[in-house]
Amino acid sequence: MAMSEHSDVVDTSARAQCPYCGEDVTLELDPGGGVSQIYVQDCEVCCRPWRVEVRFRGATAEVVLRAEP
Ligand SMILES: [Zn+2]
Fold first, then answer.
1. What is the residue range of 54's domain?
2. What is the number of domains present in the chain?
3. CA of 55 to the centre of ligand 1 (A)
4. Using one digit for the tens of pLDDT, what is the confidence trace for 46-59?
5. pLDDT (tens digit, 9 = 90+) per residue, 14-51?
6. CA of 8 relative to ligand 1 center, distance in Å
């Protein structure tokens, strides 16, 4: 039985750290929104706005949170 190489399980959430309060947070992701996404979302802990940068590399999402200037 051949091993399937098609494990198309794309990350739909990712963990990152809030640049304001330092809290570890889990973000819900939308892989259907494109391989590269930038949007603004509020921290659910300190309610300050992040600039969220998401990049999908294959099935793995890379997420960077930046403080909005
Ligand atoms: Zn925060």
1. 13-67
2. 1
3. 21
4. 999 999 999 999 99
5. 999 999 999 999 999 999 999 999 999 999 999 999 99
6. 32
